[in-house]
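Model: Ready when you are.
Researcher: Fold this.
Model:
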Amino acid sequence: MDRHTPPDAPAPLPASGPDGEEIARLFRRIEAGREALVALTRDLIRFPTVNPPGDAYEACARFLGARLAGTGATVRYVRGHGEPDDSDLHPRVNVIGRWESGRPGPVIHFNGHIDVVEAGLGWTLPPFAGEVRDGRVYGRGACDMKGGIAAALIAVEALLAEGLLSQGALEFSGTVDEESGGFGGVGHLARNGWFDRGRVDHVIIPEPLNPDRVCLGHRGVYWAEVEIRGRIGHGAMPFLGVSAIAGMGDFLALIERELLPALRARRTRMPCVPDGARAATLNLNSIHGGQPDPHGGRPAPVVADRCRLVLDRRYLIEEDPDAVTGEIVALLERVKAGRAGIDYSLREIMRFEPTMTEPEAPLVRALDHWIEALFGRPAAHVASPGTYDQKHVARFGQVRDCVAYGPGILDLAHQPDEWVGIDDMVTSAKVMAATTLTLLRRATPAA
């Protein structure tokens, strides 16, 4: 028996919502499709959609498109022309399927990213074979997030097979580049109207935040490059030059002594996990100083006239985005004033503001209801420490009823021997299917 099998009588819904027999039929259909769910997950893992550079994107998108078309969806392929990294060698191809009921009603959209990070070292199983062992499917992307894509598709297919799309519409998109910012994927679609409010009402992104939790949003991110500039000089007479590396050392000292303690003291109301993410954070991503790598192992005898540092600042919904930049500039000004001959520049690489769907939103309340019905305990609300494609849906599409919910354990993402539990995929598919039916009937479970 599935360890997450619901009770014989699921928690009651309002009279205007789906009835118990409809829900029971949905759950039986999904349970009977367990092997199909596993097979679909394995098929998706076998596409090595590694980002960068963006391998096998189109092949995976076409595979999903054929499956969507086979269930009656209208299918579109949208390439992210002009977006970062899009090229004829590695085209950023996204797939969108839509099922229409023919009657007015809400539109529920499932979105999953097909790209995965590199496999890396430390695997004991082939990373792109989709092996099944001990109730788990293993492989790069199993958890993040091909298991979630498969669970969402099985949920939609169960609704269609049971004839329960009686009003509104369903959509599914398989998109690219989430691991590198999502610009050629959801970002491109959202900027071109695919997620406009009025066209789409509710968005579920089956990221692996654990199947008994609803992820309401994420912290903000500010990536920037700091360049400290000095003056080149002879390495035997460093007093005639100005070392940019020394200037960068001054900046790093101020970060360690003043900025990091201040960030640790800032706490958010957002339910970020793990607990350390409830504070503002700053990661020193990379640093490069002095001359390029020496030719033949022989460095040039000069004083470093430039040093570059990439910062990864994660900020809270309570913080002012301008102040996030301002406190970096203030430290750099102090470095410039404190060491003669030093100057600096600050270049923004990427910025996304924090976003969080309200806990009382219709989608959140419906998910809460069905998670509690299936797991026997209240759903936990969390927020992600890092960003995901909700940032584009909220910023460009202005769709506020958007969350991440799906199978998979967050801590397994990007790890060797990544896996997703089969029971968790089945249970999360049930949650997504029942939630979708609840929203289609325009009834949200009472609090």
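Researcher: Now this one.
Model:
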Amino acid sequence: MLNIALFGAPGAGKGTQSEKLIKDHNLAYIATGDILRREILEGSDLGKKAKSIIDEGGLVSDEIIVQIIEKNITTNTEVNGFLFDGFPRTYVQAYILEGLLLKLNTELTCMLSLDITEEEAIDRLLNRAKTSGRSDDNLKVIKNRLKEYRNKTLPVANFYKDKNIFMSINGMGSVKEVYNRLNDAIELTLKKALLNVVIFGHPGAGKGTQAEMLAEKYNLIYISTGDLLRTEIGKKTELGKKASEYLKTGSIVPDEIVIRLLENKIKKNPKANGYLFNGFPRTMVQAYILEGLLLKLNSSISCMIEIRVPMLELFRRLSHRAKTDSKKTYDNETEAIVKRLEDYENITVPVAEYYRSQNKVYTVDGIGNKEDIFTRLSAHIEAAFKRAR
């Protein structure tokens, strides 16, 4: 998702620029002032709580604000992301937004700061006062608002600078000129975003063949846990010796072995455009592990592609593979094949449901020649990439 925080002093033009950004990028507009007033007008429970506080001259708490924001995020399901205007305004709110987006399986893509001089801000707000009728558009109030911005809101910039997602945008010039700068910054940010794909399907579904082709086409680092493990076994490393006993029986290799191999592979490719995972995650625990690994890179899973093949066809393919040079250790034993398929149904299918709840799963018919299947997979990956970017 494309989640943007638009930052800038009063008068920087956030509201004006937001209108075009949300239209061109299909974003939902999250302006805390606007949604707070809407909740009050609609008489919702949150709105009533906020109104009682405001009527008594108090400030609406972060707890209420974050509940209202969460409500707006979870009810806007047909958008590509969110544009936050007026939030976060404090260092504390930056942490709140971080946690909220993590809870909703997403993150802030970038913070764009519209920078103008204080003199320009004062001139713009005084000119606005001639037509706006706003009581806070007078010199004394404007100066106090700018002082409040400097003291409380500017430190938020440091929070996002530390995460390397803060971008300073020259806010001087025409509306079109400033918008073009904002749009260029968004495009640059999206190009830097990692695109991470999980190939999913029963043993025998053809994941390995398709995954390598897709990784090459989209310039992604191919990570097959099976290949990594077999390499370790071939080198007779300690990890390889431990893994060998599990693979012989078709059992899932313990996570403490697999995670070390994944970390090493990712560390060796620091300039990757993204990763294509085959054979991981196979369990819910592994799904959480992968989230943690990608979170270190300020990234997440872009999509999961499920290759679906009927059960009888899977048996036929695995039995045939046992007679070829590409056979796996468990292909020769019917019992081992059955165990692999049962493990998949009982342990791995819930992982797909986990990603499906995040609208990240694309299902592809795995019957046909590899070129036809590859075409279907490519179409879904490109759709997922457009959505992610």
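Researcher: Key takeaway?
Model: Residues 197-388 form a domain with the Rossmann fold fold (CATH 3.40.50.300).
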